[in-house]
Write a structure and sequence with these properties.
Elements lengths: L1 H11 L8 H19 L9 E13 L2 E5 L3 H6 L8 E13 L2 E12 L2 E15 L2 E11 L4 H8 L1
């Protein structure tokens, strides 16, 4: 049922051109999260996330999936300085907008010190309040298989 709803949403919501102001505005908070990851400073993501936002990570393990749902504060607090360099890149994110809601969906690859750590799919739900896009929900899958193929598409 969820897959059908997502497919319907992808068909009916507007797909802004990647070089349009609308696309850039929706991607701004998404890119801010990636920027916060890269400098390992969770406080940098907080202005771009709705106060009631939810975070869900579905980590694929050999014995099944583990679902984690940290609060935004817990997730941001976990981004602390360290010697490793983090980099997350989404591959051709799909952006859809309908009025004051938007969605960003796409594969990603996560590197630590330039080496692939894991990959998966990111799904951001966003809401626009007072003309500003904020992340309302952030969900991602995380696995260690098939990452080389995603990295090749990421360039």
């Amino acid at each position: 049922m969820l897959v059908a709803a997502l497919a319907f949403a992808l068909q009916t919501a507007a797909a802004p051109a990647p070089d349009s102001p609308e696309h850039s505005a929706v991607m701004e908070p998404v890119n801010a999260v990636f920027g916060a990851l890269s400098v390992r400073d969770g406080s940098r993501m907080l202005p771009h996330v709705d106060a009631e936002a939810r975070i869900t990570a579905v980590v694929q393990l050999p014995d099944g999936a583990r679902v984690r749902q940290p609060t935004v504060a817990e997730f941001a607090g976990g981004l602390t300085p360290g010697p490793e360099r983090f980099e997350e890149v989404m591959v051709a994110p799909v952006v859809r907008i309908d009025g004051d809601i938007a969605m960003v969906w796409g594969e990603y690859v996560f590197r630590v010190d330039g080496e692939i750590s894991h990959c998966g799919v990111n799904h951001f739900d966003l809401v626009r309040r007072d003309g500003v896009w904020k992340i309302a929900n952030l969900t991602w899958s995380q696995r260690s298989t098939g990452c080389e193929a995603i990295a090749a598409r990421a360039g």
